[in-house]
Each structure stands twice: as C-alpha cells, then as structure tokens.
C-alpha cells in the first residue's frame, strides 16, 4: 500500500489529504477562507497567506490522526507548486520541506491546474490519454490537450474574465453575496421561464468561426450592467441569473465541440469550482450524449474546489515516475512551470 500526503495552499483553501494508492482518500480536510475574504469580495493575498499559516499544521495533525498512520509510512509528499499566490504557495511548500527533511520522504511538485483534472481518478479509473481538460474556475477558463502526466498543451484560454470571475462580478452588481457562483445558481434555478421568452443577452463571440476557440466573459458582465441600467423597476434577479448562466454555458459547450472537432479527442474532463454548478453539469451531460463524447467531472463537489486529495492523487503518478524535487524547489504564480526555470 502506498500512502501519500497532499498539501494544497495555492489560493483561499488550506487543505491536507492522505490518499492510498493514488485513488482512495483516507483523510481529507479543507479549511475555506471564504468568510475571511468575503468583506473584500475577492481574495486578499496577504490575508490568505496568514490564514494558511494559522491553519495548516492543525489540519495536518487531524489528517494524520484520522488516517492512523505515522509520517514514516508516507511514500511521498505532494505539494502544489504552481500556479497560485506565491505567499500562499510558500506556506504549503515549507510544510512539505519540513516533513521531507525530518523523515526523508521525497517531494513531488504538483501543477494545481493539472491536479484539478486528475482528481477524477479518485472516483473512476483514469481514462487513457489524451484528454481535453476543460478548466472552469475563479482564475481560469481554458481548454488543454492533456497528453500525459506533466504534459499539458493550452488549446483555448480567456481573453479577459474567467467564468468564475464573471459569476462573482455579476453577483456583485445584483447585490448577491461573494463568491457569486452558488447564489446565482440558486436564483437561476428558481426562474420559471415564460414560453417563447427571448434571452436579453447577446450570444458571446458569435463572430468567431469554427477554428477560433477562446473564452471571454467581460462582454456578458457589461451586457448585464446595461440591462440593469435600462430597467425602471427592481431588477428581476432570477431572470438575469437564468439568462446569464444560459449565455455563459452556451459558450462552454460551443468551445468543447470546437475543440473536439479540431483535435478529434473525445475524452473530455471538466473541472474547477464552476463545475459545482448543477445546471452546467446537466448541460454538459446532455451534450456528451448527443455530440457524443466521453465526459468526466468530479461527482463530489468537494473535488471541484481546491483540495489536498487532488494533489495527492496526481502526486501518486508523479511519484511512480520518480519526478522528485529537491528541498530547494521553487513555487510560482505562473501556470507553465518552464517559464520560471
Ligand atoms: O476552483 P475554485 O474553487 O477556486 C479558484 O479558482 O479560486 O473556483 C472558485 C470559483 C468562484 O468564482 C465561484 O463563484 C465559482 O467557482 N463557483 C461557482 C459555483 N460554486 C463556485 N460558479 C457557478 N456555480 C456554482 N455553484
């Protein structure tokens, strides 16, 4: 049996996990800093680092106790190295270095974005590569060609706001709490669309032909703002939320179809915080049946958000490939690690 430790501290979740054989979660603890950051309607880097520092040791202690193992039984320590807030990444990195130094356990450095995709390995046998990795979170709206562990090629990216960011900004103008995703989703689910009613927001990037694959959500945010300005009555929040989601998700589906067309890859793994959205999950599921393509996304919502289990899961495969790093490893805000070497 191979026990691995996963450490995640790239943004506003502090998380530790112990995973067995790369696919079985023995213990997972996530401390969310949302309440701390919500008065600022966004993550404040300095506050995030301090909060990681305060919580990370106690989360580790609880995980070790729950797993009923000793440090010496760990075969590897997987830690998120990039991308993320550097001050926050350094807290996890330093914890990894300490445990490694004291107990001589190898460290593997994990790409946070890749870990979001491989987290499906905790719920399914990993499909054969290549995959199309669709990452929809607070910081990303991108599609990768995922060829093998550590081998990701960016196929499509956002020109401006990510999808999660759009949810958060639109929720702010609607007067909903931060982070906006779950609140907009709830409002949208309540909406009873009258038959034949037209979407008040324009189709996104309709000028793009079949070759061009990209995301852009700032136009949708502006369309919501103009719509609000045009109203003389209190805003219909449920209706706006409903059509905001419909417009935003239509672009996701269109881009996935284009990516399949362009690459002929029919295994699609969708991940990241926005995948917690039930409407998006069912839209993608329905699409996967008609398109068709093989769709994976994390079933458990805790695996959509940042967590140590996804780090330990990817770490297992890197450990098997002996991709160890020395104690002097670097962390980076950049998503392509080569950029910092
Ligand atoms: O991956 P994630 O947990 O972390 C960061 O990228 O920081 O994603 C957070 C994002 C936020 O923008 C949040 O509003 C969005 O995911 N989100 C959702 C839902 N739950 C979280 N968006 C839509 N619907 C949801 N249910």
TrEMBL record:
<comment type="function">
    <text>Required for the formation of a threonylcarbamoyl group on adenosine at position 37 (t(6)A37) in tRNAs that read codons beginning with adenine. Is involved in the transfer of the threonylcarbamoyl moiety of threonylcarbamoyl-AMP (TC-AMP) to the N6 group of A37, together with TsaE and TsaB. TsaD likely plays a direct catalytic role in this reaction.</text>
</comment>
<feature type="binding site">
    <location>
        <position position="306"/>
    </location>
    <ligand>
        <name>Fe cation</name>
    </ligand>
</feature>
<dbReference type="InterPro" id="IPR000905">
    <property type="entry name" value="Gcp-like_dom"/>
</dbReference>
<dbReference type="GO" id="GO:0005737">
    <property type="term" value="C:cytoplasm"/>
</dbReference>
<dbReference type="Pfam" id="PF00814">
    <property type="entry name" value="TsaD"/>
</dbReference>
<dbReference type="GO" id="GO:0016787">
    <property type="term" value="F:hydrolase activity"/>
</dbReference>
<dbReference type="InterPro" id="IPR043129">
    <property type="entry name" value="ATPase_NBD"/>
</dbReference>
<comment type="similarity">
    <text>Belongs to the KAE1 / TsaD family.</text>
</comment>
<feature type="binding site">
    <location>
        <position position="112"/>
    </location>
    <ligand>
        <name>Fe cation</name>
    </ligand>
</feature>
<keyword id="KW-0408">Iron</keyword>
<dbReference type="InterPro" id="IPR017861">
    <property type="entry name" value="KAE1/TsaD"/>
</dbReference>
<feature type="binding site">
    <location>
        <position position="185"/>
    </location>
    <ligand>
        <name>substrate</name>
    </ligand>
</feature>
<dbReference type="GO" id="GO:0061711">
    <property type="term" value="F:tRNA N(6)-L-threonylcarbamoyladenine synthase activity"/>
</dbReference>
<protein>
    <recommendedName>
        <fullName>tRNA N6-adenosine threonylcarbamoyltransferase</fullName>
        <ecNumber>2.3.1.234</ecNumber>
    </recommendedName>
</protein>
<keyword id="KW-0819">tRNA processing</keyword>
<keyword id="KW-0963">Cytoplasm</keyword>
<feature type="binding site">
    <location>
        <position position="168"/>
    </location>
    <ligand>
        <name>substrate</name>
    </ligand>
</feature>
<keyword id="KW-0808">Transferase</keyword>
<keyword id="KW-0012">Acyltransferase</keyword>
<dbReference type="GO" id="GO:0005506">
    <property type="term" value="F:iron ion binding"/>
</dbReference>
<dbReference type="GO" id="GO:0002949">
    <property type="term" value="P:tRNA threonylcarbamoyladenosine modification"/>
</dbReference>
<keyword id="KW-0479">Metal-binding</keyword>
<feature type="binding site">
    <location>
        <begin position="135"/>
        <end position="139"/>
    </location>
    <ligand>
        <name>substrate</name>
    </ligand>
</feature>
<feature type="binding site">
    <location>
        <position position="116"/>
    </location>
    <ligand>
        <name>Fe cation</name>
    </ligand>
</feature>
<dbReference type="InterPro" id="IPR022450">
    <property type="entry name" value="TsaD"/>
</dbReference>
<keyword id="KW-0378">Hydrolase</keyword>
<feature type="binding site">
    <location>
        <position position="181"/>
    </location>
    <ligand>
        <name>substrate</name>
    </ligand>
</feature>
<feature type="domain" description="Gcp-like">
    <location>
        <begin position="24"/>
        <end position="312"/>
    </location>
</feature>
<feature type="binding site">
    <location>
        <position position="277"/>
    </location>
    <ligand>
        <name>substrate</name>
    </ligand>
</feature>
């Amino acid at each position: 049996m191979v026990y691995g430790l996963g450490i995640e501290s790239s943004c506003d979740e502090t998380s530790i996990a112990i995973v067995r054989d790369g696919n079985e979660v023995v213990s997972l603890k996530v401390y969310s800093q949302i309440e701390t950051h919500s008065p600022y309607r966004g993550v404040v880097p300095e506050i995030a680092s301090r909060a990681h520092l305060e919580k990370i040791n106690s989360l580790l202690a609880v995980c070790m106790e729950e797993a009923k193992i000793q440090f010496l039984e760990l075969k590897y320590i997987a830690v998120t190295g990039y991308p993320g807030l550097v001050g926050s990444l350094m807290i996890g990195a330093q914890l990894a270095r300490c445990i490694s130094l004291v107990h001589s356990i190898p460290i593997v450095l994990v790409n946070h974005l890749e870990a979001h995709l491989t987290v499906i390995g905790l719920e399914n046998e990993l499909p054969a590569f290549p995959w199309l990795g669709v990452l929809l979170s607070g910081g990303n709206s991108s599609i990768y060609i995922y060829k093998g562990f550590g081998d990701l090629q960016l196929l499509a990216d956002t020109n401006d706001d990510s999808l999660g960011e759009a949810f958060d900004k639109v929720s702010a103008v609607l007067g909903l709490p931060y982070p906006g995703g779950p609140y907009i989703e709830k409002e949208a689910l309540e909406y009873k669309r009258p038959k034949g009613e037209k979407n008040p927001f324009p189709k996104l990037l309709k000028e793009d032909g079949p070759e061009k694959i990209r995301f852009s959500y700032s136009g949708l945010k502006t369309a919501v703002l103009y719509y609000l300005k045009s109203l003389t009555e209190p805003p219909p929040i449920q209706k706006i939320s409903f059509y905001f989601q419909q417009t935003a998700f239509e672009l996701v589906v269109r881009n996935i179809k284009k990516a399949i067309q362009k690459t002929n890859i029919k295994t699609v793994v969708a991940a990241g915080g926005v995948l917690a959205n039930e409407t998006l999950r069912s839209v993608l599921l329905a699409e996967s049946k008609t398109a068709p393509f093989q769709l994976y996304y994390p079933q458990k919502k805790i695996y959509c958000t940042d967590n140590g289990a996804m780090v330990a899961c990817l770490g297992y495969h890197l450990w098997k490939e002996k991709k160890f790093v020395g104690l002097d490893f670097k962390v980076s805000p950049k998503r392509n690690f080569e950029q910092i070497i």
